[in-house]
Design brief:
This protein has 332 residues and is of the alpha+beta class. It is 15% helix and 49% strand. The chain has six helices and 21 strands. Strands 1, 2, 3, 4, 5, 6, 7, 13, 14, 18, 19, 20 and 21 form a 13-stranded mixed β-sheet that branches.
């Protein structure tokens, strides 16, 4: 539209303390940050053009800090990641860097054996956070809840806290060095502050989807991935093969396909409706577990209280945010 100023996206990438933003600005094909819920690690995918062959391969386990935003409103800290996969391909030559949230390099995956008796949720979370060298952030609504007795037997802290969270219809997750424990949809920031629900309007997006299914219709979920070594598609299955739901997207790696299949199967087992939208103008400040209301869709969609379950922020030929939401069918 004439006279309408288009905002300019901006980013910052720091590798092992060195700001490389200006060095890769003209080489950037895409930069994607995927914010996941719970103890599923956030992901970074960075694709750079290497037409002249001058790009150096970063070392595995390099630490990458990323910020995304708009020139008008400034940068949003999207976290610290650790490089776990590097790929160079061509022609044309390009470098792909994949990394996972650095917070999960902590001891949350270590199996432990211990018991808690007569402890509050805040005390239990604080104990786990201290061992993982994280700061605890517990919702005031849950902090004082007393657990008469709970055992952790040959179980990782991540699994243990997930199990504890289910008792309170809550979620446990790690963001920005903090171990968060809050009711589903409470919308806690990394510092533990409550946030109000966000409003997503149809005019803000260029595509959306809504689906609802009886959980008994499927016995498992099938996801495909591109097997570059064999030159054909591979597949993974979560659940049983009797009556599979097949995900439409073909994933880049077996690991990402496994995550997607498991996540979808978990949602089916819980019995949920799903809603997703791609925002034409990115909102990098949005993240999982943030409560949301939507407007401009079907009555069943607009009248529901949604929870963001995944936020994928992609800076490529445009800067967009893809959001996934869910709510329990019992709440319809």
């Amino acid at each position: 539209m004439t006279g309408q100023r288009i905002p300019r996206p901006i980013f910052r990438v720091v590798v092992n303390g060195r700001d490389i933003s200006s060095l890769i600005d003209n080489r950037l094909e895409s930069l994607t940050v995927t914010d996941n819920r719970g103890f599923e690690a956030d992901q970074l995918d960075l694709v750079l053009h290497d037409h002249d062959g001058s790009l150096a391969l970063p070392p595995l386990k390099a630490k990458v800090a990323v910020w995304l935003g708009w020139q008008d409103s400034g940068l949003i800290d999207k976290g610290l990641f650790v490089v776990d996969e590097i790929e160079h391909s061509g022609a044309p030559d390009k470098l792909t860097i994949r990394a996972s949230s650095a917070d999960f390099a902590s001891g949350l995956l270590m199996q432990r054996e211990r018991s808690f008796h007569g402890k509050t949720v805040a005390e239990i979370v604080a104990t786990v956070a201290k061992a993982a060298k994280l700061m605890p952030a517990v919702s005031p609504a849950l902090a004082g809840q007393v657990i008469s007795h709970i055992d952790q037997t040959n179980e990782s802290d991540a699994n243990f806290l997930t199990r504890l969270a289910r008792q309170f219809d809550a979620v446990a997750t790690v963001k920005a060095g903090r171990l968060l424990f809050a009711p589903l949809g409470a919308g806690l920031t990394a510092s533990g502050q409550l946030l109000p629900a966000v409003l997503i309007e149809r005019r803000s997006g260029d595509s959306h989807r809504y689906s609802v299914a009886n959980r008994d219709n499927f016995t498992g979920v099938r996801a495909e991935y591109q097997n570059t070594k064999k030159g054909k598609k591979g597949e993974v299955v979560a659940g049983e093969r009797d009556n599979l739901k097949t995900l439409r997207h073909v994933y880049a790696t077996q690991k990402s396909a496994e995550r997607a299949a498991k996540s979808s199967w978990n949602r089916i087992q819980r019995g949920v409706a799903e809603f997703g939208i791609t925002l034409a103008i990115a909102q990098p400040e949005l993240f999982p577990e943030l409560p949301a209301t939507v407007r401009g869709f079907k009555a069943e969609v607009d009248s529901s209280a949604w929870i963001i379950t995944k936020a994928t922020h992609t800076l490529a030929d445009r800067f967009s945010t893809a959001l996934e939401f869910e709510f329990k069918l019992d709440d319809l």
